[in-house]
Amino acid sequence: MNGNNILIINMHGQWEFSPGGLSGAVVDTMSEKLRSLGYDVRASKVEGEYSVEDELEKHLWADIVIHQIPVNWMGVPWKAKKYMDEVYMAGISGQLCNGDGRNAEQPKKNYGTGGTQKGKRYMLSLTFNAPEEAFGDPDEWFFQGKSVDDLFLPHHLNFRFFDMEPLETFVIFDVLKNPQVETAFEQLDAHLESQFVRVAEAA
């Protein structure tokens, strides 16, 4: 993997029933682990005030972008969507992509090919109330055999629009009814070890 700069975005939006402690702990743990592997890490959050210009600059600085998302109604919290709308629209004129990639000569072809971030990567880190067993099983009524990445296809396509490549998605399941916090953070450590080589070894 080329590049040592990582941006982690905490996409938690404040709710009374969900104060955000888990997402904050995941971001802190990721930051500490990745720094121990030799990466330069910056963090952002969608809750509270932020500068669109500063956030766009962070994306341009980053070689890898991580979204820590507490899944809300099968998608991102509304403050996360607001952040993406503001920051990513600010980068649509060349910084993150040159429009949608089409041109006047072939207006019906090549939609989504305008990305300018080739060589950069991204990772989704998701926390779910749903149990792991709800996914990938066609006998389960709700998701009908679909995977977590099937559910988050639009989010993956957002990054594909910028010509970025995915790392393997990380998921913590069942965070409300059956939390297994110690196990989850052991799995997070192993996931980061598998996806991010030590910078000194990669050089």
Short description:
Helix content is 35%, strand content 15%. The chain is of the alpha/beta class and 203 residues long. Strand 3 (64-70), helix 3 and strand 4 form a beta-alpha-beta unit.
Oligomer: single chain
* Rg, Å, rounded: 17 Å
Helix percent reads: 25-40%
Instruction: Give a count of the beta strands, DSSP E runs of length 2 or more.
Output: 6
Element order, helices and strands?
EHEHEHEHHEEHH
Low-pLDDT windows of residues: none
By DSSP (H or I, 4+ residues per run), the number of helices equals 7
For the report, how would you describe the main beta sheet?
A: 6 strands, parallel
The secondary-structure class comes to alpha/beta
Task: Please give the alpha-carbon distance between the first and last residues.
Answer: 10 Å
Shape, principal axes of CA atoms: globular
Structure explained in plain terms:
Helix 3 links the parallel strand 3 (64-70) and strand 4 (121-127). The protein has helices spanning 21-36, 52-61, 78-90, 148-151, 153-161, 181-195, 199-202; strands at 5-10, 40-45, 64-70, 121-127, 165-166, 170-172. Helix content is 35%, strand content 15%.
Name its key features:
203 residues; alpha/beta; six-stranded parallel beta sheet
List the helices and strands and how they pair.
Blueprint: E1 5-10, H1 21-36, E2 40-45, H2 52-61, E3 64-70, H3 78-90, E4 121-127, H4 148-151, H5 153-161, E5 165-166, E6 170-172, H6 181-195, H7 199-202
Parallel strand pairs: 1-2, 1-3, 3-4, 4-5, 4-6
Helix pairs in contact: 1-6, 2-3
